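Late entry, evening session. Most of the bench is empty. Finally got around to the prediction I had been postponing all week. Sequence below, unchanged from the version circulated by S.P.
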Amino acid sequence: MAVMSRRRRPRISPARTLAAGAAALGVLTLTACGSDSGTAGDGGADGALEVTASFYPMEFLAERIGGEHVSVTTLTKPGVEPHDLDLSPKETARLTEADVIVYLKGLQPAVDEAIAQSGVQHIVEATSFTSLEAHGTDEDHAHDDEHDEHADDDHDHDHDHADDGHGHDHGAEDPHIWLDPVKYAEVAQGVGTALAEADPDNAAAYEANTEALIAELTTLDEEFTTGLADTETRTFITTHAAFGYLAERYGLHEEAIAGIDPESEPSAARLRELHEVAEQDNVSTVFFETLASDATARTLADDLGLKTGVLDPLEGITDRSAGADYLEVMRANLAALRDALGAS
C-alpha cells in the first residue's frame, strides 16, 4: 500500500545540563515480586551482587556502576541482533537466579515476557528514568495507525519539547534512549540508585561510580554539541531508525531506510522519498550498521552515487566495533557524522 510521506524537521532542544536531568528524576521505582530465589544482595559464591542485563547498553551501565561489587551477565551475546532475541528455556530459568535485572522495555519482547515471569525482587527498567518519544519512518506510523485506530490521544508524557509548537509524530515510542548521552545519564542515575537499594552495604561505591560515569557522559554530550554545531547539512540516512534521540538532541535530521525494527523492509515509495531527500539535503553518505544487513543501504548508496559509512547503534560490541566500549564507539560515531555532514 502506498504511504504518503511526511517529513518532520529536527527540533533543537533547549539547553539543559545533565546534572539537571539527573536531579529531575523522581523516586526510584523497583518492581517488587515474590521470589524464592534468595534475598537480593546475597550475591553469588564470591559475594558479588548477581546482575543480569538484557543487552549491551544495560550491561555497560551495570558494569561501570557496579564495579567490583557486581557480577554481570547479559542475555544478548555479542554479535546477536537484540531486536530478534529469543530465549531458551534454560536462559529463561536462569533469570530467576539474579539478584538484580537491568533491562529496557519495548526493545526485546521475549525478554520483557521472561522478566515479567521471573519473580526477581529487584527489576530495574531503564525507560522509567527518562521520557520517551515517537521516532521512525512514516511507514512505522502508518503501520501503527492500522493496528491502533482508536489509540488514546490523551496519553501524556513529559516530553522535553512538548511546547515547541511542532508536536510529535504519531507512532510507537522509540526505545533507543542510550544513543542520547543526556538520556543515558538519566538512566545511569536510576541504575545506580537501584544497585544501592539492592546492596546497601556498597551504596557509597555505587554512588561514586555513578557520579564518575555521569561526568564522562557530560563530557561526551559536550563533544557532540561542539562537534556538530557547524555542518554543511543536517540530514543523514541510516539503515534503521535508531538515532532519533541523538538527532533531536543535536539538531540533526535522521532519515531511515527501515523503521524502528531493523528487519522491516522499506517500500518502493520510501526508497523514492530517500532519493529526493538525498538530493534536496545534500546528503553525502548512507550509513549501515555492524549487526544488521547492509544490502539495502549499499544498494541505495550505489543508486545515488553516495559514500557508505558505519554508524553504530551500539546494540552490541563485537570485534568489528569501532571501539571497546560505549564511550569509544560513540566517539567513533561522532567522527563519522562529522565527516558525513561536512562539519567544520
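Two things to note before I forget:
Confidence is low (pLDDT under 50) at residues 1-42, 139-171.
Residues 20 and 186 are 10 Å apart (CA to CA).
Will write this up properly tomorrow.
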